[in-house]
Model the fold of this input.
Amino acid sequence: MREMIVSELTQATQELVREFARFLPRLMVMLIVVLVGWLIAYILKWILRSVLRLIKFDKLSENAGASQLLNKAALPSSTELVSRFVFWIAWLGFVLLGISALGILGLQEYVARFFVFLPRMFVALIFMFFGLLAASFFSRAALLWAVNTDIPSPRLLSSAVRVLITVFTASTVFEELGLADSTMLLAFAMVMGAVMLGMAIAFGLGGQHLAQRFLEARFAPEKKPKEREDELSPL
Amino acid sequence: MAEESILTDEFLRQLINVGEADILVGVPTYNNAATVGQVVQTIRAGLLKYFPRERAVIVNADGGSRDQTPDLVRGASINDLQHSSDLYALRTLHCISSEYSGGPATGTALRTILASADLLRASACAVVSPESTTIEPDWIERLLRPVYQGNFDFVTPLYRRHKFDGLLMRNLVYPMTRAFYGKRVREPYASEFAFSGQLGSHFLGQEIWTHEVGHTGTEISLTISAITGGFRLAQAFLGAKPHVDARAADLVAAMRQTVGALFWSLEPNFSLWSAQTESQPVPTLGTGQEVTLEPLHINRKRLFGMFCSGVAELQPVLKSILSSPTLSELQRLAALEEDDFRYQDELWARTVYEFAASYHKSVISRDHIVQALAPLYRGRAFTFLVDNRDASGEEVEQKVETFCLTCERLKPSLVELWDGRK
Done:
């Protein structure tokens, strides 16, 4: 009996040692992948930071209005944030690669999903950045145009342009990420519909006299004698 | 070397038929049927009267007119002139026309004219606006003679102007060009000017053609190029300034063509303008700038209103361009009553310099920087109109001169802003 217990224990221990011996190289591989991954991610971060500084990315993000948001949230500069983000994503990728090297079946599926999701996340981030940049640029262009042509409420027009482009960007980003597709589509349609309806009501009811004058001026210009005003040439 | 790549095969054939020329007059056009016939007739008359022995050619560079402008140029027959005056041609006076590609752009038209002059080895060339309805035959002589005799390389015009005409020129373009480059060229953005063949070749070799200023604002870029190249400059009095076209009356477009090109020029010429301490007069042929005083009905209130609303509405944009003290001062001004409002020389000069530095640093889109200056200029224009309501021509000129000196005095502050010392 005693011998049987000893034999079973010995067998179990030997099995454990054998299993561990089989697992050890994979663990070593994982550790190596994680360490090499850290080094690669660090080099990637360094290169990216230098490139972003070279192309004055901080200035671009300032133009896009992203820097102001980061400042308010007490976050580092855009260049630092993007390079840190890329470092962590790259290292996380290597960590997951290392984990998949362990050969644990359940985990491998999640790791594979992560790698499928990664490019979409990058594309979504690029969409978001350029969307914010476009929103900032076109809202400023609208503001300047409205001020220089003496259109009433220039800031309202500028904000409307910014909101429209931001909403469009957000819907594109969420669609790219594949998050709540139908909810986002519905939300986008509702926002757009509300904006258009609001504008229609504002123009049709709130500004009916303005609309009337505009339409009259556009399609039935009055032949009222205008007080003569000399036009000054700037040049 | 001629930039033949921008000349079409058909146009090259026409130029080859001309052979070589002593004098070339270029007329850049786009839908100018209403005025171009008369302008070309006058140019012809000027050439026949003052340069009868020289080989002369009129070159029309057209931007794709749909109103038969090129036909009118070609059809402005020499016979009409001979019937009406005692003008006789001793040589064939060629008149050729070409449509350049890429749509209407003054820069492309000027480049076509320059390339033609280079190919024909013309010794003296002039550019005349097709809208110069006040042109007289002697304008051609006044522009071309100093260059043709070899005394000067670049001749800009002087006009008889109303005291309130060309406010942007008087309040920004002339004083700033003078302060930056040290030459008192009264009309740095001229629609009529003359240049030597040597300077024409120099223009063609400039890098402006690959930039936006090579399309709009080319005129001022050429003036700056002549100054920085050390060429011999002169100014010739022509006569009354022609009535301006609708395009030039658009303030933002006018600012892009002049201020945008001026700010752009500062970058490649930093070493030159930063070392320039004071300005030198440019030889003037004929009388100086003349000022007329007939009463005008101008809506000053609108200018003031647009300045105030501009400062208020553009606050976030101006904040990224101007320093805090300058912006605060502008906001204080915008809160004043119309009667108390004065946009003084020093503040205006400081504003423009801060805009120039922000343009250099590209704090926001450069085009937006130029556009953001327009409402502030309206405030300055309002002050100019109020201050000179009852001023004589001499007084107006004296005030322009005082402002120019202020710009020259404050220029070191731009150098400090430029390299970030401030």
Notes: Residues 393-418 of chain B form the longest helix (26 residues). Chain B touches chain A at residues 164-169, 173, 189, 243-244, 248-249, 251-252, 254-255, 257-258, 296-299, 302, 305-306, 309-310, 313-314, 317, 362-365, 368, 371-372, 374-375, 381 (CB under 8 Å).
